[in-house]
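Hi there. Long-time user, first ticket. I'm pasting a complex I've been working with (about 1196 residues overall). I'd like to know whether the download I got is complete or cut off, because the file seemed smaller than I expected. Thanks.
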Amino acid sequence: MPSYKAPVQDVMFLLNDVLGYESHGNLPGFADATPDLVEAILSEGARFCEEVLAPLNPVGDRAGCTRDGEGNVTTPKGFKEAYETYRENGWIALSMPEEFGGQGLPTTLNSIIQEFMSAANLAWGMYPGLSQGAAAALAVHGSQEQKALYLSKLASGEWSGTMNLTEPHCGTDLGLIKSKAVPQGDGSYKISGQKIFISAGEHDLTENIVHLVLARIEGAPEGTKGISLFIVPKFLPDGDGKPGARNPVSCGSLEEKMGIHGNATCVMNYDGATGWLLGEENRGLNAMFVMMNEARLAVGIQGLGQSEVAYQNALAYARDRLQGRSLTGPKNPDGKADPIIVHPDVRRTLLSIRTFNEAARALVLWTALKSDTSHRSDDKAAAQAADDHMGLMTPVIKGVLTDKGFDNAVAAQQMLGGHGYIEEWGMSQFVRDARITMIYEGANGIQALDLVGRKLPRDGGRAVMAFFNEVGTFLKDNAGEEAVAPLLGPMKAGLDDLQKATMWFMNNAMAEPDNAGAGSTDYMHLFGTVALGYMWARMAKASAAALASGASGDDRFHETKLTLARYFMERHMPETSLRLSRISAGAETMMGLDADAF
Amino acid sequence: MPSYKAPVQDVMFLLNDVLGYESHGNLPGFADATPDLVEAILSEGARFCEEVLAPLNPVGDRAGCTRDGEGNVTTPKGFKEAYETYRENGWIALSMPEEFGGQGLPTTLNSIIQEFMSAANLAWGMYPGLSQGAAAALAVHGSQEQKALYLSKLASGEWSGTMNLTEPHCGTDLGLIKSKAVPQGDGSYKISGQKIFISAGEHDLTENIVHLVLARIEGAPEGTKGISLFIVPKFLPDGDGKPGARNPVSCGSLEEKMGIHGNATCVMNYDGATGWLLGEENRGLNAMFVMMNEARLAVGIQGLGQSEVAYQNALAYARDRLQGRSLTGPKNPDGKADPIIVHPDVRRTLLSIRTFNEAARALVLWTALKSDTSHRSDDKAAAQAADDHMGLMTPVIKGVLTDKGFDNAVAAQQMLGGHGYIEEWGMSQFVRDARITMIYEGANGIQALDLVGRKLPRDGGRAVMAFFNEVGTFLKDNAGEEAVAPLLGPMKAGLDDLQKATMWFMNNAMAEPDNAGAGSTDYMHLFGTVALGYMWARMAKASAAALASGASGDDRFHETKLTLARYFMERHMPETSLRLSRISAGAETMMGLDADAF
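Hi, the file is complete. Here it is re-exported in full:
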C-alpha cells in the first residue's frame, strides 16, 4: 500500500527562508498566523492527510462511486466519515472571510493544505476543493443575502459546491452553451439543459449541493456575451435556510473514467430547476472566471501533489528493491544485490522529479503569497503588481505543473517495473488520477493560449516585464555570491531564451497570429522552466545563507538543496533552448497542409 | 467507438520506394513474395485487424480475463473466435520455417502485421506474439525432435507459447532466480518455483500451452551462469504428440493491471512440473536472449501501433469537433464554430505524433529487412553488417518507440479533452495499454544501458561506426539535391550531437562508468531522434524522386511527405542538443548525494 508524508519542513523553509512570509505580517489574517502557528496548523493538516486520506485513496479508486436507480450517488466507504472530520475541524473555511464563518487565515495556508490533500487523495480532495471554488465566486459576485445563505453553508461544509460549465457539444468554447434560463418574474429562473463532466455533481457527503450553472437567459445575445451564472441548489432553502423542496436537478449518470474514481463525475440534468442569478445578467463568464482562476491554481497544485506522492513511493521502492550491482562495485556486498538507488539512471529519474517538485512548490507558494497580497494589501501598487503576477503565473502553474506532474508520476511508476503496472502497488492510480489535471479547468493547450494570447500582451506586457526585471536583478545582485554563482550562467541562458522567444512573438505573431498558436505550448513550458529555475536560485541562496550563518539547524538539508539546484540547472534548464528552437520554427509548415492531408 | 485503418499505402511506399525491398529478392522467401503479393497479403491482414480485432479491443478492456476456482482462465468474449480465424489463415506461421509448417515468408511481413495487430488490439495480439517468440527460441536452440513436436504445434497455432522469467524478487536481475529444476534421470526435470507477470500464462484459446521457463538446475553455479531454459508444457504430449497428462503448472492468480486487460497476466506456480532442457545446461539466459531480441522488436512495434491508432482517432475528432474559431478568421463560417484542426496547437500535436509514427515505421521495416538479411543471406559480410545493425537498433526501437509511443497516446488523448478521460471514447485504453510497452521485455532504462554499455562498445564500435558512416555518406551524397537539401542542415546537426555524445562516453565513461549510466536514457533518445531523422531524409528523397518522375501516382501523398520531413527537422531534431547537454553533465551531481539524502 502506498504511503505519504507531507513535506512540512520543506514548506516552512520556503515560507521563512525563501519567500519572506514574515514580511507579509501587515496583511489581514497574517498577524495571527505567526510562523509557529502556521507550522502547528500544517502539522495538524499533514497528519489528517497522511493518516486518514492517504489510506482511503486506493479504497476510493477500487470502489468508485455508485448511483442508484433514483439518481442518488454514494461515495466510497470512509469518504463521508473523513469529510465529517475535515469539516468539523474547519479546514474548508481556513481562508474564507470571517464574516461568513471562515477563519480568515492566509490563502497561502490553504494552498499548502491543498497540496497535501491532492497528494494523499486527489479524488476526495475535489469535494471540498469545489466548495472553495464556488465560495470564491460567491464571495466576489454574490449579494449580501446570497453570501449570508450560501457562502456560510459552504464555509461550514454543511453544503458543498459545484461548477457547471461543460455541455456535450462544448467545453472550451463556452459561447456555444445551450442551457436555458427562463425568468419567473419573482427574481428566480427556471433552468433547463444538460451539463456533463460535473465533478462532485451528486454525492452523499452533504445535506445540500450548491450548483453554479452557466446558462443563457431567454433572448440573450448569441455567443459568450449572452451567458449568465446561476445558483441552483439541489434542495431549495426554506425560510430558515434549511434544505427544503427537491429542485429538479439530478444526476443522469456517472462517467466511467480513467481515474479519480472516488469522485463522482456526473451528467447533470436540469429540468426546469429553480435558480437565481449570481452577478450580472449576461456576465456569467466573467463571474465564472473568478472561480476558474482559483480552480486553475488548485489544479496546478494537484499536479504537484501527485508528482510528490509518486516520488515518495518510487523512492521507497528504490531504497528497498535489491537488483543488480552498482557500476562501480557492490554497495551492499552482504546482500545478493544492491538497492537500485545505486544506479545513475534511477537517481536521474528520482532527482528529475524531486527538483521539479521542490521548485514547483516554491512557485505555488510564491504565487499564493501574491494572491494574499493582491486581495488583502492596502498598498495599491503592491496589490496591482501581485495581481499581475497572479494573472501571468496562473496558466504557467496550471499547465506546467500538471504536464510535468503527470510525466513525473509516469516516471515514478516506471521505477517499479512490472510492479508499477499492476494496481496493487498504487503507482498506476497516481498516473491515472494525475492525468485529469492536464485536462480539466481548461486543457493545457488552452492555458498556453491564455498565456501567450492574453497574459503576455496585457497592459503592454507589464506583468512579464516585471518578471524579467526581477530575475534579471537577481542575476546582477548575486553575481558575486560564491555559493550561487555557478547557477547563474544556466539561469541567465534560460532567461535569455525566454526573452528571445517573447521578442519573437512580438515580431512575428502580431501579423500572423498562427505563429503564436504554433509556439504557445512550448512557450508555456519555456516560461515554466525559467520560473522554476529562478525558484532554485532563490532556494540555493537561502540555503547558502543558512549554511554560512553556522546555525542552519540542519546543514544536511541545506547542502542537499544546493546539490538539487545544481541538478536542475544541469538537467532541466537546457530545455529552454529546445523550446526556443521550436517556437522560432513558426506555423508555416504546420499550416501549409490541408486538413484532409493529415 | 474508436476505429482503425491499417497504413498499407505507407508500408508499400517504404518497401518499394524507400527501403529497396526488391533488392532483397535473392534471399530465401523473398522471391515468392513479390511486391504485388506482399500488398495482397497485407491488405488481407489489414482487413482482419480493422474488422475483427479493432472492434474487440474495447470489449476485451472492459471484460478482462477471468479465472475460476480451479485456475482455468477465460478470455473475453470473441477472443477465441478471432484466434481461430487468425490461426486457420496461417498468420502465426507467416515467417516461420516451412519445414515445420510455416510459410517461410520474410520476417519483414510479420513485423508489418505485428504493427497492424498491435494497433487494433494489443492485448489480443500478445497471444500469438508470445507463440512467435517461443517458436524463435525453439527454432534456434531446440533439438530436431523438440522442433518437430513443439515448433510445428506453435506454427499451426494449435498450441501457444509463453516466456517465464520474472519472479517476485527479481525481474531485471535474472541472476537471482530461485526456481529449481531437479533431473529425473530420464532426460526430464521436475521444475518448482513461482513466476510472476506471465503474459498469456493460462487461457482458453489453445488446447495446450508451451511454457519456456528459466530455472536453476540443482547444484548449478550461483548467478546468471547457473540458469537453464526449460520447455514445460501445460499438458504433457502423449506418444502421438497430443495433449496428454496435466502437468502440475498452474495459474495461481491473475494480476489486476492498468491496461491490456484482455491478456491474462498470470502468477504461475510450478509444483514439480515436468520439463525438458532447451539448449545447453546453464546457458539458459543465452537461449532466452534469442526470444528476447525478437520480443523487444515486437514491443517497439507495439509502441508504434498504439501511437498510430491513437493518432487516427485524435485526427478524426479534430476534424469533427467544432469549437472556437481559427486565429485567422472563420474557416467554417456557416457552422457555429470551426473544427479544431484549424488551431495551430492541435496541428502541432497531430504532426508531432504523425512525423514520429511514419519515421518509426520506416526504422522498424529497415531493421526488419536487416533481420531477414542477417538470417537468410549467403553473403557473410552483408549478414554480419545486418546483424550488427539489428543489435544496435533493438534497444533503440524498443526504448524509443515505446517511450514516445506512450507519450503520443497521451497527447492524442489530450486532444479530446474530457472525452479523452472517460472510457467511452477509447483513448484512455490506448494510454493504459501503451504504458506496459515501456516496462516489459526489459524496462526502458535497461534498454538504454544495453545500448550504451553493450551495443556501443561491441566489436570496437563496429555497428555504431557503420551507422555514422551511412548517415554521413547520405549527407554528402545528397548535398546537391534541391528537394532534400533543406533537411540536411538539421540532420547534420543531429548527427554531430550524437557523435559528440558518443565521443563523450569514450572519454568519460571508461574510467567512470557512472557517467555512462547517467547519460544512457538521454543517449538512447538522442540516437532515436537521429535514426528517425535519417528515415525522414530517406523518405523525402524517395518522395522527391517520385514527384520529379512525373509519374508518382499520387502527388499529394509525396508532397505531404516532404512537408512532414520538414516538420520533423524543425520540431523533433532540435531535441538532440538538449540530450547532449544532459549527457555532458555527467554523473557527479547525482552520485554526490547519499541514498538517504533523497
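A couple of notes from our side: The mean pLDDT of chain B is 97. The radius of gyration of chain B is 24 Å.
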